[in-house]
Structure formats: structure tokens, C-alpha cells
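Methods, example record. To illustrate the input and output format used throughout this study, we show the complete record for DUF4156 domain-containing protein. The sequence lines were provided to the predictor; the line carrying C-alpha cells was produced by it.
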Amino acid sequence: MKMVIKRQLVCGGVALMLVACATVKTVPGAEDVRLLSAAELVNCQRLGSASAQVMDKITFVERDKEKMAKELLKLAQNEAVKMGGNALQIASDIKNGSRQFDVYRC
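The corresponding predicted structure is encoded as:
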């Protein structure tokens, strides 16, 4: 009985890791959306904001902040393309796997 429970826990943990390791797919044009500083956005039009969210923990283990930041940026680039934007500015720190971005057209 203990072996069955142990096997189920291991299989469940592996499944969670596989889901968490899935890469963020980008939409066409997302690779052209740039992350810019406030000084670089002076002549750009603000289109709105985008919120991106990823898992911040796998089971009880916190994920690497740098990896989360890259995934959040890819998600925000996808949203920027949908909004007609070509530039982003980070509007918040990462909190619980979520980050806000401002979307611009330059």
C-alpha cells in the first residue's frame, strides 16, 4: 500500500514538472516587441497595459525568478502584438508569478 502511494506521488510530481517546464509559445511578430526604458518611450503612444502570469511554485518549490521574468516577458510580447504594440515597459515587480507591463506603439 505504501509503495502505491509513493508511486502516485512520484508520478504526480513528474507530471507537474513537465507542465511547468513547458515553454511559452510566441505569436508571429512577438519577437519584434522590444522592452524599453522610460527615456526610450518618449515619442511612443501608450496603448494600454498587459498582465502576464506564470506558475511561481512547483509543488512547494519556488521557481527561478529570472526564468519566470523571461516567460512573463514572452507572454507580454504576445499581448502587445494583439494590441497593435511594438514596445513594452515593465510596470510592476513579479508578485505571485504575475507582472504588469505597459504596451506602446513607437
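Annotations derived from this record:
The chain has one domain: 2-105.
The beta strands are 34-35, 45-53, 57-58, 61-62, 87-90, 98-105.
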